[in-house]
Amino acid sequence: MRIVTSEEMRNIDKAAIERIGIPALVLMENAGRAVAEEAMRLTAQAHGGPAKRWLVLAGKGNNGADGLVAARHLLEAGCEVGIAYAADPAGFRGEAAVQRDIAANLGLPAVVYAGSEGDPIYWTRYDGIVDALLGTGSRGAPAGVYAALIREANASGLPIVAIDTPSGLDADTGNLHDPCIRAARTVALAYAKRGLVQYPGAGAAGEVVVRAIGIPARLAEQIGVRTFALDERTLRERLGVDPARAREADTHKGTYGHALIAAGSRPMSGAGLLSARAALRGGCGLVTWAVPDRLVEPLAGRVPEAMIYGLPDEERGDWSGVAPAALSQLTVGKDALVLGPGLGRWAGDGDWLRELLAGLDPALPIVLDADSLNILADMPEASAQLCGRRAVLTPHPGEMARLAGFAVPDIQRDRIEAARRYATQHAVTLVLKGARTVVATPEGDVYVNATGNPGMATGGAGDVLAGLVGSLLAQGRTPDQAAAFGVWLHGAAGDRAAAGRPTSSSLVAGDIIEAL
Ligand SMILES: NC(=O)C1=CN([C@@H]2O[C@H](COP(=O)(O)OP(=O)(O)OC[C@H]3O[C@@H](n4cnc5c(N)ncnc54)[C@H](OP(=O)(O)O)[C@@H]3O)[C@@H](O)[C@H]2O)[C@@H](O)CC1
Ligand SMILES: Nc1ncnc2c1ncn2[C@@H]1O[C@H](COP(=O)(O)OP(=O)(O)O)[C@@H](O)[C@H]1O
Ligand SMILES: [K+]
Q1: What's an example Gene Ontology biological process for this entry (predicted)?
Q2: So what's the ipTM on this one?
Q3: Is 38 in the pocket of ligand 2 (CB under 6 A)?
Q4: If DSSP codes are grouped into helix, strand and coil, which group holds residue 268?
Q5: Is the CB of 437 under 6 A from ligand 2?
């Protein structure tokens, strides 16, 4: 399923209407009917029966016109329906004027809301609200009467079904204007809009239901939409990953690759422990866990299934004393390298990373996480060494901000474009972590993940992901496959783990590994 911007949606609508010849009124009819169905389904679930009394808040554009169609279908289904116009319907044009006339001819009761000066809306007379104020044509913060209606609707406590986007949402980024509708359900027409799948927008949208309205599916591909929901179908159809694939009988541990996890130092040995265990649960045949020599003794036996390897560390117990050449030598014969969790920082770490990257087989796939990303951020010229190699970078927003040279809010404001920009400019696969993790490929495709939960906001959850992605790389997955499949699996495991806990807040990173 593709995810679109407002502009992409306008281009798709235009192609459907002008190039293919589907009348706009047909699309609108399908949209309004779908909204009425979803509205009744929502309240049937919540109250044990469909809400009987609906108030449709209608703006002056096509989103409002969709709302008028929905009002008509709700009426036909036996509901009482009122309309509150946010603008004088006498000024409506095009399809909105057509729908206004149909609603009037049917005798649907309507008021033109004039703000605090005009007649009040008696919200208690209704059981539910349809938000048809603003859709993909919205610009900036809702103004005047639109803003007043949004505030009152939110304050009413009634369940709100938003058409296409909650009014007040920036549909391209997921940022919220003030005010913004807080919907229980958003019925996205034809495609999910980007703002519905990134926070805080995803929170304002409630449950997002995508409904077909008669737009041919191939149009999104034709106009070049390159953002996708990361689900089982996308994994199979776009990324060539079968999540349910079983192992062939005639295989052995050598079939499934050998991952080298270079992670952990004295104060952060647990990071390496989690990555190594996650790599094993991720299914690779062999895991070698490389640590500074002094850590071998205390860590020996902690992950019995992995081979632990001590690199000479000048007796420091951290990576500052480890020669990059010793680590690159250890990668010989391995199928993937994970570098970063619990690595630490030290004077001269930039030169260290540069030398390490220069010494690695260019064909060796690598995962860079945590401090290896912070080192990279301090020496942007080293990122050129990544170009063209099979690399997956897994920053959280703080690491991403350092890498890209922006502040965290600049990254979070448009996570999809921030990830895409970095991945294409540096020719790497980039995983921007956090709620609704974004995976961007060097070609500019972006996958938005929906698995995972806030219980995973716990130390070490990222180390688990790095080990898992490394494990998938070692098994021969491409960087794009390993990153996307790894992110999806990691979130799904987090969901299973959270379901097995009395509260999601008690989830720890090790639980995610056990649920893999
Ligand atoms: N195209 C199609 O065929 C199909 C489209 N579909 C539907 O159409 C929706 C897009 O419709 P749209 O393009 O008419 O824009 P829409 O979101 O209704 O709002 C624009 C109006 O609001 C106003 N306005 C803007 N910002 C504002 C603000 N901050 N505060 C206050 N007012 C503001 C602006 O007025 P202006 O400022 O320009 O005078 C303009 O008149 C889409 O989401 C889907 O629901 C489906 O039916 C399928 C077929
Ligand atoms: N609210 C959330 N919803 C879904 N996933 C989350 C949430 N919070 C954190 N995660 C996931 O948990 C992991 C945390 O990684 P990171 O921030 O690197 O933690 P750490 O450095 O402690 O290991 C990431 O994969 C992230 O996407
Ligand atoms: K809306």
Answers
A1: nicotinamide nucleotide metabolic process
A2: 0.95
A3: no
A4: helix
A5: yes
